[in-house]
Amino acid sequence: VQLVESGGGLVQPGGSLRLSCAASGFTFSVSTMSWHRQAPGKEREWVAGINSDGGIKNYVDSVKGRFTISRDNAKNTVYLQMNRLKPEDTAVYYCKSSRPSSWGQGTQVTVSS
């Protein structure tokens, strides 16, 4: 199982980033996928989740209306579109598969002027 995140970087407040997570080594299309983040000195928190066919999406309250999770089962990839970014969104972002349970290595997102 391999999950590889990309798309992180430095962005100004109010800006946007799109994270990608490329999956391999398992049947991606049957696995719920999720994004999590961990800010310095804080515990890792769940950010968003999407079911296997993309029909059900859920978000933590702090990102509702700003972040959108999506997936492309033909490309074995899950995405996190992040708009109207805030400094408090600064964290390492991780994707996670549910079947089997596995984590990516993370990608750094820094929101700062």
Explain what you see.
The N and C termini lie far apart (37 Å). With 113 residues, the protein is an all-beta fold. 32% of the residues are buried. Strand 5 (45-50) and strand 6 form a beta hairpin. The mean pLDDT is 97. The chain has no helices and eleven strands.
Biggest β-sheet: count, sense, barrel? 7 strands, mixed
The proportion of strand residues reads over 45%
Summed over residues and divided by their number, the pLDDT gives a mean of 97
Tell me, what's the shape?
A: globular
Element layout with pairings:
Layout: E1 2-6, E2 9-11, E3 17-24, E4 33-38, E5 45-50, E6 57-59, E7 67-72, E8 77-82, E9 91-98, E10 101-103, E11 107-111
Parallel strand pairs: 2-11
Antiparallel strand pairs: 1-3, 3-8, 4-5, 4-9, 5-6, 7-8, 9-10, 9-11
Describe this structure in a few short sentences.
The protein is mainly beta. Helix content is 0%, strand content 52%.
Task: Spell out the key features of this protein.
113 residues; mainly beta; 4-stranded antiparallel sheet; 11 strands; 52% strand; globular
